[in-house]
Design a protein that fits this description.
Order of helices and strands: HHHHEEHHHHEHHHH
CATH topology: Mitochondrial carrier fold
Strand content: under 5%
Number of helices: 12
Radius of gyration: 21 Å
Subcellular location: Mitochondrion inner membrane
GO molecular function: L-aspartate transmembrane transporter activity; L-glutamate transmembrane transporter activity
Membrane topology: Multi-pass membrane protein
Pfam families: Mito_carr
CATH superfamily: Mitochondrial carrier domain
Number of strands: 3
InterPro entries: MCP, MCP_dom_sf, MCP_transmembrane, Mito_Solute_Carrier
Length: about 325
């Protein structure tokens, strides 16, 4: 049994990584639309809805414009999803020795959410800058002679460009490597963890809701107590429903996190000094409805992402690659 558990951990890490990469590749354009919609301010709306955002993105940036920031996600989603799924399994195993209650399942999810932010925060930080670049470029085209300033931490101006109506503005594409180097140079490692509090505020409740809900929905698909196997389509549907529910529940936290982690601001877009300041300014200037910006997109991202992830995870890609059957390892 001890050897099985040793083997199962690397298998679960492989499963989590593969699941994350497959899921992100499928839903990334919707995630890009979510980020741009969340960063829109009242009175400066470039996009009406998700489809309008995607259509305008393709027209102005080409098809691959919908995948801006995907390289960061694909690079870091493997350890992020591996940590999230494997940590949840680990905590559930530790807490199940005297019986696994719903409260213990929620504690396991809480532990998984806390572990994943080690990777999630810098990944989201870099991804948001790259995803939102197209929105800011479009805003520059609509506002002649506008000055866009990249601010780190809301203090010192690091990069400033001025654009005129004619000719059309030429926006230099900034890579994730350049952003990382600039942050490390000016702010150190802590620069990559800007918005950590908001990320924790989003990811912990998400995991607390998602993992217990998925476990119970998934259990309904078992053939019988003697035969605990579940059809792959049931794993997919359980992941979709649990992911969608959890995503909508924490959508306001995701809006706050996105605003805090956006370093480059458009014209007349305010900066925020922490979670409380961000919440108060959004409420005062945009109203409660602003906290649900991009909620539909987020649900459409998370539902298939976690549905695909759970199918890959339960199919047992890692166990197959390591030469073991999924059921022997999963029963460890």
């Amino acid at each position: 049994m001890a050897q099985q558990q040793q083997i199962s951990l690397p298998a679960k890490l492989i499963n989590g990584g593969v699941a994350g990469m497959v899921g992100v590749t499928c839903v990334f354009p919707i995630d890009l639309a979510k980020t741009r919609l969340q960063n829109q301010r009242s009175g400066q709306q470039l996009y009406k809805n998700m489809m309008d955002c995607l259509i305008k993105t393709v027209r102005s940036e080409g098809y691959f414009g919908m995948y801006r920031g995907a390289a960061v996600n694909l690079t870091l989603v493997t350890p992020e999803k591996a940590i999230k799924l494997a940590a949840n399994d680990f905590f559930r195993h530790q807490l199940s020795k005297d019986g696994l209650t719903v409260f213990k399942e929620m504690l396991a999810g809480c532990g998984a959410g806390m572990c994943q932010v080690i990777i999630t925060t810098p990944m989201e930080m870099l991804k948001i800058q790259l995803q939102d670049a197209g929105r800011l470029a479009a805003q520059q085209r609509l506002m002649p002679a506008m000055v866009t300033t990249l601010k780190l931490g809301g203090t010192s101006a690091v990069l400033s460009r001025s654009y005129n109506a004619n000719p059309a503005p030429q926006v230099t594409r900034v890579s994730a490597t350049q952003i990382t180097r600039e942050l490390l140079r000016t702010k150190g490692v802590t620069g990559l963890y800007k918005g950590l509090g908001a990320t924790l505020m989003r990811d912990i409740p998400f995991s607390v809701v998602y993992f217990p809900l998925f476990a119970h929905l998934h259990q309904f698909g078992q053939h019988s107590p003697e035969n605990p196997t579940v059809p792959f389509y049931w794993s997919f549907m359980s992941g979709c429903l649990a992911g969608c529910t959890a995503a909508v529940a924490v959508s306001p936290c995701d809006v706050v996190k996105t605003r805090l982690q956006s370093l480059k601001k458009g014209a007349n877009e305010e900066t925020y000094n922490g979670v409380v300041d961000c919440i108060s300014k959004i409420l005062r200037k945009e109203g409660p409805g602003a906290f649900l910006k991009g909620a539909t997109c987020r649900a459409l991202v998370i539902a298939p992402l976690f549905g695909i992830a759970q199918v890959v995870y339960f199919v047992g890609v890692g166990e197959f690659l390591l030469g073991y059957t999924p059921y022997n390892i999963y029963s460890a």
